[in-house]
Amino acid sequence: MSRIAARFKTLATQGRGALIPYLEAFDPDLETSLALLKAMPAAGADLIEVGMPFSDPSADGPVIQLAARRGLKAGASLCGVLKMIAAFREQDQETPIILMGYLNPVEAYGHARFCADAAKAGVDGLILVDLPPEEADILEQPAQDAGLDIIRLVAPTTSDERLRYVLSHASGFVYYVSITGITGTRTASAEALQEALPRLRAATDLPVAIGFGIRTPEQAATAAGIADGAVVASALLSTLADTLDADGKATDQTLPRVLNQIKDLAAAVRAGEKKAG
């Protein structure tokens, strides 16, 4: 059983959903982002998404765009990101790690080589925002050979027919983009999420995590209670950015403030009740 499947199975027996925080690799530098990654599980992260900085993150709002820019300025590369994950795995063999990013750097690295190296580093799943299932044959077999899950994104606008097709190519979990638009710009209501989940459940047995627009502990608890997990990204990156000095460098407040925010999110998710559906 993969780390992703094992973690969701454990959480299901506990009757709660997952908190899935996001960090951008090398933001604002390698040392700080690695320290943050290593500290996230103890702060309450159940799974972790790590962003692979890219110069044209078309699905992301201004907060993640700026984080990616900081990461690239600090020297981020796919090799560097994988080394960062390998360093994390030296102390943590349990927490699932999902890399999130875009296809262009993976193509430049080489599809099969990337999947093999990612698995060796300790990556569990991939989210490539701009890789539709119709074109995913370039990555599906190498990912399967390496034991990596390919996590698919679906949205409120995804038709039933399209939903079935996309999810037939998914593994690990389903990432439900709860809004139409880019990351971190607005939030879906609890009613809209409750209406969306039965359609997703009818199309797949995979766990469902809700992202795009989850900012507060209350919103995370609601999303994780309705679905199987809540992804929090822009809110954490906003906090990190607020702690940087005038030169964009980390300060003594960077790690404590972000980790305290994760602790607050985790406490709300753990206190929430899992809803049927």
Tell me briefly what this model is.
This is Tryptophan synthase alpha chain. 50% of the residues lie in helices and 13% in strands. It is an alpha/beta fold.
Mind summarizing the main beta sheet? 9 strands, parallel
CATH class: Alpha Beta
Beta-strand level of the residues, as a percent range?
Answer: 5-15%
| Overall tally of structural domains | 1
The H/E string reads: HEHEHHEHHEHEEHEHEHEHH
The portion of residues assigned to helices is 40-55%
Cα end-to-end separation: 24 Å
Task: Indicate the CATH architecture.
Answer: Alpha-Beta Barrel
- The total count of strands amounts to 9
Q: Based on Cα principal axes, name the global outline.
A: globular
Instruction: Give me the CATH superfamily.
Output: Aldolase class I
The strand line-up of the biggest sheet is: 5-4-3-2-1-9-8-7-6
In terms of structural class, how would the helical and strand content be classed?
Answer: alpha/beta
Kindly report the average pLDDT value: 93
- The DSSP helix count reads 12
- CATH fold call: TIM Barrel
Low-pLDDT regions: 181-186
Radius of gyration: 17 Å
